[in-house]
Design a protein that fits this description.
It is built from 8 helices and 4 strands. By secondary structure, the chain is α+β, with helices and mostly antiparallel strands. A 4-stranded mixed β-sheet has the order 2-1-3-4, with helices on one face. A hairpin with a 2-residue loop joins strand 3 and strand 4. The chain starts with a strand and ends in an 18-residue tail after the last helix. This is Glutathione S-transferase family protein. It comes from Roseateles hydrophilus.
């Protein structure tokens, strides 16, 4: 199994974390974003959108981090731990997969990209958007240890990476104690792999 990734991509880390939590052996294939390796014809053949991550599972090509989580759960999560088999549980995970592609991407992720890759987002827009999302997460985690219940799921995996590195976008996590406890619980899971940190934003020396 091969995962095409880049270490600063939260989307790629999300897929890597899922693979590791499931205990699935895999090879990380570095994609040089600076040289636009993700826009070459060979890469576009795997993902027409020209984005990482892409999973190659013995010839089965799965682009998009959310799709990779669903694929891994359907194929390898035989007991329904990471995506529950019941309709309610599956819907709750899907809601967080949607949040990862929406409020998380356009809030904490966008704020971080201003400092990590000099993205042209307006911090006066994206930082308040990030805190609005974090307030929702904090409220949910005040009621339960993980986003949809008593044990971790791919809802948590989908949300973790960019929230964990939110300080790189000048988004302070100090006011979210339940959320910070949740980050620690994820980081204590067997198979956890950390998301690379950058010395920018609130993490600048």
């Amino acid at each position: 199994m091969k995962l095409y990734h880049h270490p600063i991509s939260g989307h790629a880390h999300r897929a890597q974390l899922a693979l590791s939590l499931l205990g699935l052996p895999h090879e990380l294939i570095h994609v040089d974003l600076a040289s636009r390796a993700h826009k070459t014809p060979a890469f576009i053949a795997m993902n027409p959108f020209g984005q990482i991550p892409v999973l190659d599972d013995d010839g089965v090509i799965v682009p998009d981090s959310g799709a990779i989580l669903v694929y891994l759960a359907e194929r390898y999560d035989t007991d329904g731990h990471w995506i529950p088999r019941d309709a309610v549980g599956r819907a709750r995970v899907q809601a967080w997969l949607s949040a990862a592609a929406g409020p998380i991407a356009y809030g904490v992720s966008a704020a971080r990209l201003i400092h990590v890759v000099a993205a042209r987002f307006n911090p006066d827009e994206v930082i308040p958007r990030a805190h609005a999302l974090l307030a929702v997460v904090e409220s949910e985690l005040q009621r339960r240890p993980f986003l949809i219940g008593e044990r971790p799921s791919f809802a948590d995996v989908a949300a973790y990476s960019y929230i964990a590195n939110a300080p790189e976008g000048n988004v302070d996590l100090a006011g979210y104690p339940a959320l910070r406890g949740w980050l620690a619980r994820i980081e204590a899971l067997p198979g956890f792999v950390p998301f690379a940190q950058s010395p920018v934003g609130l993490r600048a020396a």
